[in-house]
Amino acid sequence: MFELVKEQTMSQKILVSKKMKMLSLAGYLETLANKTGEDFSSLEAIANSMFSFMNGERHFQFRRLIAAPMSSKSMEGYHPIFRSIADETINRLKKASCPDLIADFADPIYVLSVEKILGLKVDDEVGFLEDVDTAATLVEPLLPLRQLKIVQNTLVRLYKWVSNQESSFAEGSVAAQVYSKYQGVISHQEMIVLLLTLVIAARTTSETIANIIIENSKLSPDKVALMTSPEWVEKNVDTLIRYCASTEYLTRVASEDQCICGRSIKKGEQLFIHVPSANRDPSYFDDTEYKNILSSAPCKHMSFGSGAHRCPGAEMSKVTIKTILPLLYQEIPTLSCCTDAIHYKKTTFALRISSVPAII
Hints:
Layout: E1 2-5, H1 8-16, E2 20-21, H2 25-36, H3 41-48, H4 56-67, H5 72-77, H6 79-95, H7 102-118, H8 125-136, H9 145-163, H10 174-181, H11 188-201, H12 203-216, H13 221-224, H14 230-244, E3 249-254, E4 258-260, E5 263-265, E6 270-274, H15 275-278, H16 314-331, E7 336-337, E8 343-344, E9 353-355, E10 358-359
Helix pairs in contact: 2-3, 6-7, 6-16, 7-12, 8-9, 9-11, 12-14, 12-16, 14-16
C-alpha cells in the first residue's frame, strides 16, 4: 500500500519523522530471490552496503565518514577545480558542430566532476554513462526480473571499477579522503559501495543544470542576463534548484502507525513524495512558476530531501551550479535550447534528459 504526497509541509514532516524509515532494498531482494529462485546475492550485498537505504546508527556511521569531505567548506575549497571543469565543458559546447546540451555539456560536467572532485578515473565515457544510468534504475518500482539481472551485473561492474582504483584515487579528492579514514568505521566493501553511491548520486547535479538552462530558454533576455552574475546565482541557487531539480520522487516507509498533518498513516505504508509538486505547493510558496524567479524568495525545498537522509551531495551540487552557471552565460549569453526537441530517458524517480539541441 502506498500514498502520494504533494504538499511541502507534510513532505518536510515525513522526512524528519523518526517513525519513517528508508525502504529495505536488500530485504526486498532477499524476498524476491526466495519467491523466484533467482540469484540476486551480488545485488543484495551491494544494496545492503548502500547507506542511502540504511537507518539508525549504521547509517550515521557512513554520514559521519563523509561529513567533512562533502561539506560546504570542503566543496568551496575545490573552487579552482570547478572553475576548470566549467572552462573545459563550455569550450566543448562552443566547439561542437551540432551542439547538444547533454552530450556536449551536462554529461562532460558529470564525468569531470567524478574524476576531479570524487577522484575516480573514467576511461570509457560512453560506457560509464550507460552503466550509471542503468545502476540508477535500482530504485525504480516493479522492475522486471530480467532488468534486475542487468542492474546487478552493472553494479558489480561499477563496484570493480571503484575497487580497482583504490590505490590511485586522485590526491585530495573525496575518494582519497574517505579511503584514508574508513578503517575501523566501516568495512572495505562498504567503503567501495559508499564511493559508488556518491558517484551514482552525483549524476543529478548535471541533470539539474540542464533543466535550468532549458527553463531559461523560456525566459525573457533580461531575466536570463541575471545568470551572468555570480552574486545573483549564489543568492538564488536554492530557488533554481527548487524549480529544476531532476529528482522526481522521495520515498519512506512508516515503521509504526502515526498521524502527520491530520492524515493517518498505517505501519508498513509506503509514501511517495512528488518533489516537483511539493516544490511548487501554492499553500507554502508565494511563487510556483519559474517565470516568476525574480520574485521567488529562498525557501526550504524537497530537492535534497530533509532530515537524517538529506542528500550528502547537496553542497557539491550547489557549488557546481554557482560556479558553472555564471561562467556559461558570460561566455554564451544567448544560449538557449530547442525545447520542442527534448528527448527523455525512461525513468520514474528522476527527470533525465537524453538529448536536446543547444542554440549558441
